[in-house]
Amino acid sequence: MLGLRFRRMLQNKRVYTKRRALGAMQRKTVSLLVALLLFSAIPLNVSADENEDIPTNAAATGIHDSLVAALAHADLVGPLTGSGPFTVFAPTDQAFSDAGIDLTDFNTPELNATLSDILLYHVISGASVMSADVTDGQTVGMMNGDDASITVADGTVMINDATVVSPDVVASNGVIHVIDKVLMPPVELVDIPTVADGTGIHTALVAALSQANLVSTLQGDGPFTVFAPTDDAFAAAGIDLTAFDTDEENATLVDILLYHVYSGAVNAADVTDGLTVTMVNGDEASFSVADGTVMVGDATVTLADVLASNGVIHVIDKVLMRDIPSTAASTGIHDTLVSAVVDANLLSTLEGDGPFTVFAPTDQAFTDLGVDLSTLSESELSNILLYHVVGSEVPASAVTDCMSADAANTQPLSFTVGESGVMVNDANVIMTDVISSNGLIHVIDKVLLPTDTP
Fold first, then answer.
1. Which end of the chain is more exposed for a tag (fewer CB within 10 A), N or C?
2. In sequence order, what are the beta bridge partners of 434?
3. Spatial distance between the Cα atoms of 58 and 152, rounded to a whole number of angstroms
4. CA separation for the pair 298, 64 (Å, rounded)
5. Distance between the two ends of the chain, CA-based, in angstroms?
């Protein structure tokens, strides 16, 4: 039921937007209608006691236990025992089952408000509307504030897509019409950031989009496909937005986020095993499909096809990351380093599983070194570059004053921690903990030279 709960959360924001615009009632959080099965259109013989109210009569039919339980869960039994009159379109137990509704999922006041909204979409207040009173094409206002449509054809009455299978069950305070489907209130789609903001599980993503000034971009026409990591995914990735406090750092954040966006609307059914697409940041992402599970990179799609007005969201359980060379290539300040890694034949090494920690000199640092790297042999260049690599993950929080660590070329690196920040040898660490799929990058302002450098 986890997927249904997410759908309810997502729908909640869409409907809240519509309600606010209309100045009416409560917001919805659901999209529970999943592949509803047709119920028999053969009329049911449902009897009623005209001296009893609607909830009491519903409880006595034997086919409305789910409806009665839902009314109790949403605290609507009392209101529907009132004088009314009410007209209730009552879904059968089978209809509730087909809709996948599990009352245990409605376990917060907000979700209970959603349940109430659904149930009140089955009620007309202030009138006992008999089947003979309805006409084809009629629109009726339901108690939750939304409209429903009536069709009449060949003696069969439908409300929206539900068939009335037993009409005119008279109660003391109104009338019941038994229907074969749960009616879902209409929703008005909103843009991708607004949908994400309403889920309750994408707070970190929305905050990151805001910090990276991407909200307005993803509110554009699109269409976009966004692979949306949950808050747990951001926490597991160790992403701390307070660490992105310079233009360069924010550029890295933009690049990470745009690696989760595809320009175009791609539904889950369109994804095939082995598919590779180019994301908005220019890098490629690969998909795998096995046993009904879709993955993008090493992230699993936990909820697919959440519709927005300008695209679609797929919820994923990990932040999409690229390896260290790809991450460095995206920063805009490590072009020399990336070229040197290629020239030293170290690209496949640093694309490996790791984890690695790379102290990454900026382009300016290489310029300041004043050395033409093309004059160095492959082994000399490799020795210098491997002096910037530690074969384990060393986050900034693990660095202490006077600490040392062996670099990948076997020579030690020395660390100092002072008021001015962290230094590795004589280089200042100017940006820490740039996360990649196989380790961390710390940006430094000087090239580190091994003791055996010519």
1. C
2. 441
3. 25
4. 45
5. 64
Q: For 172-230, how does the pLDDT look when each residue is reduced to its tens digit (9 = 90+)?
A: 999 999 999 999 888 778 999 999 998 889 999 999 999 999 999 999 999 999 999 99
State the alpha helices, DSSP H only, in 27-142. Answer: 54-61, 65-73, 77-80, 93-98, 109-120
Smallest Cα–Cα separation from 65: which of 90, 40, 32?
Answer: 90
Q: Which of 119, 54, 115 is nearest to 91 (CA)?
A: 119
Identity at 239, one-letter amino acid code: I
Residue whose C-alpha is closest to residue 281's, from 337, 206, 214 = 214
* Residue 288 in tokens: 């795998």
pTM exceeds 0.90 for this model: no
Please, are residues 124 and 18 in contact by the beta-carbon 8 Å criterion? no
Closest CA to 371 of 358, 360, 384: 384
> Is residue 355 reached through a cis peptide bond, with omega within 30 degrees of 0 on the bond before it?
yes
DSSP state of 228: E
Q: Which of 176, 162, 186 is nearest to 37 (CA)?
A: 162
> pLDDT digit string (tens) for 307-358?
899 999 999 999 998 899 988 988 889 999 999 999 999 999 999 988 999 9
